[in-house]
Amino acid sequence: MSTPAVAAQPPRETYINTDWSLRSWLLTIDHKRIAWLYLISISGFFVLGGFFALLIRLELLTPAGDLVSPDTYNRLFTQHGVIMIFLFLIPSIPAVLGNFLIPIQIGAIDVAFPKLNLASWYIYSLGGLFIVIALATGGVDTGWTFYTPLSSTYANSQVMWVAVGVFIVGFSSILTGLNFLVTIHTMRHKDMTWGRLPLFVWASYATSLINVLGTPVVAITILLVGVERMFGLAIFDPALGGDPVLFQHLFWFYSHPAVYIMILPAFGVISELMAGFSRKRIFGYNFIAASSVGIAVLGFIVWAHHLFTTGLSVYAATVFSALTMLIAVPTAVKIINWTTTMYQGSVSWDTPMLYALGFLGLFLVGGLTGVMLATLGIDIHVHDTYFVVAHFHYVMVGGAIMGFLGGLHYWWPKMTGRMYPETFSKLSALLVFAGFNLTFFPQFILGYLGMPRRYHAYPEEFQVLNIFSSAGASILGVGYLLPGLYFAYSLVFGEKAGRNPWGTVGLEWQIPSPPPPHNFVEGEEIVVTDAYDYEHDLIRDDLDRRVGPPRDAREVPVG
Amino acid sequence: MATQAHTGDEHHDEEVHISPHSTYYWVFGALVVLTILTVWTAGMDLGPLNDVVALGIAFTKASLVVLFFMHVKYSSRLIQLIVVGSVAWLAIMFGLTMIDYVSREMVGVDPEAVPNPYERFEMPAADSGHGGDHGGGDHGGDAAHAEASAGDDSH
Amino acid sequence: MGSHASGVLAHHFHSISQQRAAHSLGMWLFMAQEIMFFGGLFTAYVVYRALNPLDFAVASSELDAVLGGVNTLVLIASSVTMALAVKYAQLGKKNMIVLFLIFTFLFASTFLVIKYFEYSAKFEHHTVPGYDFDFHVPADVIQKFELSPERIATMEKRAEVFFSIYFAMTGLHGLHVFIGMCLIIWLIFPAMKNKFNVDYHSPVENFGLYWHFVDLVWIFLFPLLYLLGRNIH
Fold first, then answer.
1. Minimal CA separation from B105 to chain C, in Å
2. Directed axis angle between helix B77-103 and helix A244-278, to 10°?
3. Is C162 a domain residue?
4. What domains does chain A contain, in order, with CATH numbers?
5. Is the dihedral of CA B67, B73, B76, B81 positive or negative?
6. Which burial class, exposed, middle or buried, applies to B70 when counting CB atoms under 10 A from its CB (0-12, 13-18, 19+)?
7. How far apart are the first and last CA of chain A?
8. DSSP annotation string for chain C
9. DSSP single-letter state for residue A18
10. Shared-domain flag, residues B63 and B26
């Protein structure tokens, strides 16, 4: 905003311009640069996973299985799932935004273990490499869940490469989670008490707990599938006396909490956006913080709702159904508090807020259909149909990716020091919202009517809804492509952002954009207050002193 | 570096606790005795109590190692919480998995008396290639999945 | 920031105690991760054991409880020497650190040598799953429990599950022992160069935690795998 003219001064040293060499990027231990390494890798995998989704939707345009063979189709949806879940969604917000923001938001100059942080990225890349090799040598067709005995005995595809890749990537997320937990515990500014932590940090804390406690279980499970496949050990194969349902128990012990690994950081982002763009203290800070940890803990005791139709005992099913519904409580706490935060705030319609509002609607639908699926009777009816696919995508795409994009739009000026074109970014937010609903809402109907998932052909009466879905997917694709273009454009041509382009509160907005190598300007005091404390005198003075009065648009309250 | 005066959590470990040698020796002695005890009791036929005794001894040994060798007795509350928390998480995994297995047989219905639901559907002969139909037999995955769920009735 | 000069304090920490707290917390979280990693295997054990108690006991009686017991004592001894190595690291006594690390290393190698003999016996007795597996229920067990031929057949099949779990658990544990031995060698060099002192001994301390964890796993593996069938014959 009101950055003084810089023409006469030598350029300020930032974490970006301090050293341009490739070596300095690949060997960096700066958490901000590591965030960029992750951003580039996950974007690549997002495009790859999106490509598979595109082929799936193309195939489903017509009832006949005419574009790809059934076997290829199995590989397409498996690879779409494996890439999107393990290589995109799980690292997306924690490894990119979390890496960039957590140290800054708590007032530290880096994470607790910077070298481990870099190692995590290399471990991630190595795991990604294994999965890419699997794709290049024929792909994998077991579904992203690797159910046994299909994966351990019958599948002829590259299961081993993918299993090893997922195993390795798992350790990347364990180590990132461990790093964040230690950072949040030991690296906080002296005034940054637990009750003052931004909610994004709380959400990341809860996510990291799941990473550390859950991910090792899927690692050992995948390892067991591997040794069963390689050496013929009898663990899960019923032909040898094993129990495939045990695989599902162990797999979902991690993989259900894993959906909270994907969505909790998005909750954190949305809390930041709701408070920031309502210019108001968030409603019920304690409840939102506690509900993040509550979801992380509850998330561990609900996993068997994925097993309702696979031979789970009916009594266990009843218990898990009831426990699953409990999850709705902390989630509803969040939704209600976000909505209440907007009440009587001066809500502004900047792009990040558009994503946040989109998130609110889509996640609500995703969450409520989750309660439907937790109900035993309904789950038996819609199990393995497009209803489940739609529910999952409403939560993961409508929730996690909306949160990721919203956060990226919010912190992009901080990460790069540049603004992006507003018109295009708003257009993209609207396209994503519209395209998403057009893609996935018909799938609820399809699923309820009985269209099973994972089939490349379907009866003709489902065609109209499938055409809607495929058409929506192309709009969604454009919506995702746009940010790539205008973000790249903004790097060079974007307007200079200044310290605090949105006029919001948080330690990250008290430092220059992009931040200096050690985050905080030497000798400059930072003001640590309660999170989102817009009424605090110090914060008001500080905002005025550093960035001037807020932008005009902000002074018009909405509603 | 005035702006980066971190503290994080309160650290009580300014003084590192150093146990005397004698602690390590008596813990070692106890572990050896308990190992012999567990072998001895395993040879007796105590019925279900065998497991209780074996696990009781194992937990005692583990607690000795955790408390004295790993110094958890003298560690911060946070680290004690991590130890208790991990064990609690294991208990969640064991417990909630087992509620499935212990109640599998408690259906209250004679499984033989329940008609096989799949008998109601006539499986068409393999006529794949007929695109618009439910064309059976073209999903290798689902055949194996069906087998997966069928396999668990083997115990 | 005087401690920066001594090269012990990393740039992003502001005090030795902060750094020590971070290292210790990090290691303990890693231990939590390890507990859950082995926890998956223990869950598999618990489930199959609960489903097939007699089968597991019969298969377990094939294992050599004497070798298992000796290995338990070896690992306990190594845990004691490791605890003492940590103590000397806390006191900054260079020679004693190296000496007790070497003791620990020797006990660890003894463990693996005994394990090697146990494993090779399995290959000879055809009790390696997936590799020429051929298990026979001992005659006295058949007599004692009056087993029908069908029951004997399922028991021989379940034995393969037991041995699969045995190999998965002891194999993963053995791998941890091996990694631990590599880490000891990696620690001995800085210890000889007198890198560890009263202010800085986190690497030894944290490796100690790892090593005790390896011992802990074995404390449970020994009764759960070796002692089940002691009263069956």
1. 11
2. 130
3. yes
4. 30-555 (1.20.210.10)
5. positive
6. buried
7. 27
8. -HHHHTT-S-TT-SSHHHHHHHHHHHHHHHHHHHHHHHHHHHHHHHHHHHH-HHHHHHHHTTS-HHHHHHHHHHHHHHHHHHHHHHHHHHHT-HHHHHHHHHHHHHHHHHHHHHHHHHHHHHHHTT-STTSS------HHHHHHHT--HHHHHHHHHHHHHHHHHHHHHHHHHHHHHHHHHHHHHHHHHHHHTT---SS--HHHHHHHHHHHHHHHHHHHHIIIIISTTTTT-
9. T
10. yes
The verdict on residue C232 lying in a domain is no
CB contact under 8 A, C37 and A219: yes
Helices (H) and strands (E) in chain B, counts: 4, 0
Nearest residue in A to B101, CA atom: A313
Residue A496 sits at φ, ψ, to 5 deg, of -60, 135
Q: Note whether residue C156 is domain-resident.
A: yes
Domain extent, residue B24, equals 19-70
- How many domains is chain C built from? 1
Q: How far apart are CA A404 and CA A400, in angstroms?
A: 6
Query: What total number of domains does chain B contain?
Result: 2
Domain membership flag for residue C206: yes
More confident: C135 or B124:
C135
Q: Is A495 on the interface with C (CB under 8 A)?
A: no
Sign of CA dihedral B38, B41, B45, B51: negative
Of residues A465 and C16, more confidence is placed in A465
Mutate to test the interface with B, among A68, A152, A153, A189 (most CBs of B within 10 A): A189
Closest CA to A197 of A513, A450, A533: A533
Distance CA A523, CA A540 (A): 21
Contact list in B for residue A186 (CB cut-off 8 A) is 6, 8-9
**Residue C46 contacts A where some CB pair is shorter than 8 Å:** no
Question: C168, A235: Cβ pair inside 8 Å?
Answer: yes
Asked, for residue B34, whether it belongs to a domain, the answer is yes
Read off the CATH number of the domain in which C221 is found. Answer: 1.20.120.80
Q: How far is CA C155 from the centre of its chain?
A: 28
Token pair of A68, please? 């790809």
Of A190, A304, A311, the CB nearest to B152: A311
pLDDT score for C60: 92
- The tens digit of pLDDT for each residue in A208-264 reads 999 999 999 999 999 999 999 988 888 998 887 889 999 999 999 999 999 999 999
| Nearest-angstrom CA–CA distance, A183 and A177 | 10
Residue B127 lies in a domain: no
Q: Global pTM?
A: 0.90
For A279-314, the pLDDT digits (tens) are 889 999 999 999 999 999 999 999 999 999 988 888
Asked if residue B4 is part of any domain, the answer here is no
